[in-house]
Amino acid sequence: MLDQLATYRRLVTLNDGLRVLIRPLTKTDKEQLLKLFADAPQEDLDYFRSDASDPKIVASWCDELDYAKVFPLVAVVNDQIIGDATLHIGTGYSRHVGWVRLYLDHEYRRRGVGGLMLSGLIDIARKIGLQQLVAEVVMNQVQVIKAFQNLGFKQEFVFRDYFMTPQGETLDVALLILRIVENPTTF
Amino acid sequence: MENNITSYRKMTTLPNGLHVTVRLLNPTDRDGLLALFTCATKDDLQYFRDDVTNRELVSSWAERVDIHRVIPLVAEVGGRLVGQGTLHRGRGYNRHVAEVRVFVCREFRGRGVGTALIQGIIDVAKLIGLHHIFSLPVSSKPQDIRAFEGMGFRTEGILHDRFMDAEGNTYDMLEMSLHLRRESGF
């Protein structure tokens, strides 16, 4: 199954004429991925679980690529990676759950690219038989929450004060869940 | 601060007369820790996030304690490790939060050992200045939920069907949090 998913491709022309290719990240994408995160402003980096400003960490995402653990899709425009969306696959008692994270270059936001990447991850999750997808989004990211909701994610509850800014201010985090019900007996 | 954690030691006499010492795990505990997990039943094993039948993995926990990532406390009775409580620390934007996990050998359950471990975890969480700690007990384990409630944890949300057992049945997990008084800055 994972070999088949490695060939996943989706080429879409958006309403504004932008042609976007969604495909899995490969080891040869390292330089491009480093550039994507090197260009990310600090206020974006604050929302990353890992330190994406550290080239060693970003390089390890390519060097230690393992689709069975983390399945990353990238958005490519004119041969440049402009977005990275990852599906983190649970293990053990969470083997039916996947966690979704997404980063998109500022220039390409609100143009439908994020939705395309998320749809791609939902396709992948369905194919590998996951039952639910989870996204954790800071409550001040209203547009991001809406984007997830437009794709069927529902806000199940809110983690109070779960996110701390570099200045020490705490913010609530919405737990957004997408039920993938078509394949409930795979496991 | 770190010294306070590494030297943490609390001895409690439980109502049944059992003397239990809660302290930080150290490299000399390797065999004791391996023995502790051999008492895990098949049912217990499915509640662990990691494979505790993997001797290499369990040995590494004792041999390479890194309190910046995980603070492991053990409960010792009569020189034997009978339980473990771990505090899994967040990083980056979660640096003020940590997850609690507790395991007690079946023959010592219902005797206050788990409570002593949770109290130890609360003590060290306060020492390092965490804002809050949380646990994710499974709805099929009401005794675990009661134990955390008894220590002041409150259910903040339900993670529907988040836990899958060996047969593929799913159960809810509860997000139970304890908010701590902030004692130090970050």
Give structural notes.
The complex is a heterodimer of chains A (187) and B (186). With 187 residues, chain A is an alpha+beta fold. Chain A has one domain (2-179): Aminopeptidase. Chain A has helices at 2-5, 30-38, 42-45, 55-63, 113-127, 142-150; strands at 10-13, 19-24, 70-77, 80-89, 97-104, 132-138, 154-164, 170-179. In chain A, strands 1-2-3-4-5-6-8-7 form an eight-stranded mixed β-sheet, with helices on both faces. The radius of gyration of chain A is 16 Å and the shape is globular. With 186 residues, chain B is of the alpha+beta class. Chain B has a single domain, classed as Gcn5-related N-acetyltransferase (GNAT) (Aminopeptidase), CATH 3.40.630.30. In chain B, 27% of the residues lie in helices and 33% in strands. Chain B is built from six helices and eight strands; from the N terminus they run αββαααβββαβαββ. Chain B has an eight-stranded mixed β-sheet, sandwiched between helices. In chain B, helix 2 (30-38) crosses helix 4 (55-63). The model of chain B has no long low-confidence stretch (mean pLDDT 93).
Determine the CATH superfamily of chain B: Gcn5-related N-acetyltransferase (GNAT)
Mean pLDDT of chain A: 92
Order of helices and strands of chain A: HEEHHHEEEHEHEE
Specify the CATH class of chain A: Alpha Beta
- How far apart, in Å, are the first and last alpha carbons of chain B? 13 Å
Largest interface: A-B, 31 and 32 residues
Global morphology of chain B: globular
Instruction: Based on the coordinates given, report the CATH architecture of chain A.
Output: 3-Layer(aba) Sandwich
Q: Which structural class fits the helix and strand makeup of chain A? A: alpha+beta
Spans of chain B of 5+ residues with little confidence (pLDDT < 50)? none
What's the multimeric state? heterodimer
Strand sequence of the main sheet of chain B, in spatial order?
A: 1-2-3-4-5-6-8-7
CATH class term of chain B: Alpha Beta
